[in-house]
Known about the structure:
With 486 residues, this protein is of the alpha/beta class. The chain contains 16 helices and 23 strands. It has helices spanning 4-7, 51-70, 73-89, 91-102, 110-122, 155-168, 183-193, 208-217, 230-243, 265-276, 297-310, 329-345, 379-382, 398-406, 421-430, 466-469; strands spanning 14-15, 17-19, 22-24, 31-35, 42-47, 126-131, 134-142, 145-149, 172-176, 201-203, 223-227, 247-250, 256-259, 289-293, 348-351, 371-373, 391-395, 410-411, 414-417, 437-438, 453-454, 457-458, 471-479. The strands form six sheets. A seven-stranded mixed beta sheet has the order 15-16-17-14-13-19-20, with helices on both faces. Helix 3 runs antiparallel to helix 5 (110-122).
Amino acid sequence: MATFEEVKKYIDSEYKLYIGGEWVNAVDEETFDVYCPSNGEKLATCQKGNEKDVNRAVEAAWKAFPAWSKMGQIERSKLLYKIADALDANMDKVNWAERLEAGVRAGMVSDHFRYAGSAICASEGVANRTVDHRINMVLQEPIGVVGQITPWNAPAGMACMKLAPALATGNCIVYRPSKETPISTLIMAKIIGELLPPGVLNVVTGDSATCGQAILDHPGILKISFTGSTETGINVAIAAAKKLIPATLELGGKSANIFFDDCDVKRALTGFYMGIYTMNGQVCAAGSRVLVQEGIYDMFVDLAVNMSKGLKVGPVWDDECKIYPLITQKHLKQVLNYVEIGKQEGARVLCGGIRLTEGDLAKGNFMAPTVIEATNDMRIAQEEIFGPVPVIIKFRTEEEAIAIANDSQYGLTGGVWTKDISKALRVATGVRTGSMWVNTYLQLSPGYPFGGYKKSGLGREIHKSTLEHYTQKKSIVINTSETLPV
Length: 486
């Protein structure tokens, strides 16, 4: 097992803003500190950008845009492949930075750039003749300077899934990572920035109220891509609407992971773990509503509780651990408060529900895996808890399972476990959600359109259709006749 001191060598003690191809201090030279959720120790000091710094970043981005946007698709694709190779060569540094600051392991980082680099080469316009002597051409052109804002729960992966399509389509970027987890993004900015013309990528760190809001309000930013809570996403949508610019929103979820009587229970138990304990439950796609058919309900619940009790909880540098810390003490308190809400609603806490403070765990934000038996009308079954807290709900029929799954303001993901492929397809198509996994869960890769229905967002990520979110169509009409129509 590694130690904190051994893995901390992968990160620096100070980080600056990345603007116009240079590492600079914030205009007001304010800073903030980043802490490790595993032990509460300080990791680094970062520059705290504000409206002035966003102005600098937008100016640098627009300066770079004319040349970058005119670069040919093949040349830009080659650059994205070089970025992917460079990220692979530095994966240890990126991975450990993300583990230390977010308590998760980086994944699918370089793949986003290779996929976007390939997809852009296959992107085509349209030309046709609608009437005699007239040829219509449709081009897809980059939007310009785009603003991207991401949360703290998967900083490296979030950054790459947004940066890759925006760069592939010829846009320049002003990017704000979460204040809680900026380090892995800044490390990648150094790797990526060395391969791009100055100003194409700009990273401004700071808080939501100043830095984030400045990105939303800036007249020079012509598209917003945001991942975060539904409540904040609504504000982002309002800000974009006021400017009449497009916004891609990947928001909250309360996804149903549905287990039928005929499922392979041993395999399904792994699916239960994948659905709720991956990333410590701090992921919008978590299968946090566990729907179990009555025929296997008691057995499944017993197995799920015993497995949850046996999961080792600890710091990110201990590879034997299956559950890592929650991001902050504040968030830990919010998750624990939901356990109390559940109790007040009449839900049964079958295991966990407490903060772990034994030995070195007292230094971090650790929570015992928590299984709660509930009904779908309870707050804990309707609101996003964002922690290792699955809510188990019994159902009788296929129709009831679909109805329960759809009884939610969210529609991001879901899962169905059964040996009956016809049933699996009926349920997968019957649940109103952007993604459904069959006999697996939380399997994402570039080429998989990820996004939600209802209050889970607008638009899709990590798919070739994402390229359209970063382009705008231009029509060109050519008259081939020597006379003009009357």
